[in-house]
């Protein structure tokens, strides 16, 4: 029993991310993001306008990022988030998965939950049992346009 306890302690201390899972969120019919703690409210996403609001910050995704929402004919957006992991490793975040079941790829966007800063954009491609998820390198203009689009709202 002691050996098991020592082993589990070792895993929690040296591999804390092994036990981490994002919290799955839902979008209601009017775009409210359901499942975030109250401190992140109001939380909304409007797919048609490509607008995200978390608490007192809002961003309308610039054209260079709207592209990833418009690549699929019938996009389905899945949201997940994490606000309970070690912040020094990765900021608390909101994760977008933009999926169309008829194709073998999807796009992901990781966004800082507190500042709406863009952390990364990626494309995941499934080939058989293998998933490739390279980060997409965005141009400086796109990054600047995103940064400029983040606004503080009341």
Provide the descriptors you would attach to this structure in a database record:
154 residues; alpha+beta; 7-stranded antiparallel sheet; 4-stranded antiparallel sheet; 3 helices; 11 strands; 20% helix
Please sum up the structure shown.
The chain is of the alpha+beta class and 154 residues long. The chain has three helices and eleven strands. The chain has one domain.
N to C succession of SSEs: HEEEEEHEEEEEHE
Largest sheet: 7 strands, antiparallel
Rg, rounded, reads: 17 Å
How many independent structural domains? 1
Percentage of residues in DSSP E strands = 35-45%
Mean pLDDT: 88
The largest sheet has its strands arranged as 2-1-6-7-8-9-10
> Outline, from the CA principal axes?
globular
Briefly note the structural class of the backbone.
alpha+beta
Number of strands: 11
């Amino acid at each position: 029993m002691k050996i098991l306890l020592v082993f589990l302690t070792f895993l929690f201390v040296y591999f804390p991310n092994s036990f981490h899972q994002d919290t799955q969120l839902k979008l209601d019919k009017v775009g409210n993001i359901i499942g975030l703690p109250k401190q992140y409210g109001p939380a909304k996403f409007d797919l048609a306008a490509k607008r995200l609001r978390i608490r007192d910050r809002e961003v309308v995704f610039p054209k260079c990022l709207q592209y990833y929402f418009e690549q699929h004919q019938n996009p389905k957006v899945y949201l997940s988030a994490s606000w309970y992991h070690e912040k020094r490793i990765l900021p608390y975040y909101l994760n977008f998965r933009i999926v169309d079941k008829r194709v073998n790829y999807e796009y992901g966007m990781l966004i800082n939950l507190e500042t709406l800063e863009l952390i990364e954009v990626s494309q995941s491609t499934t080939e058989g049992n293998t998933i490739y998820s390279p980060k997409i390198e965005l141009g400086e203009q796109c990054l600047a346009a995103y940064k400029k689009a983040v606004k503080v709202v009341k």
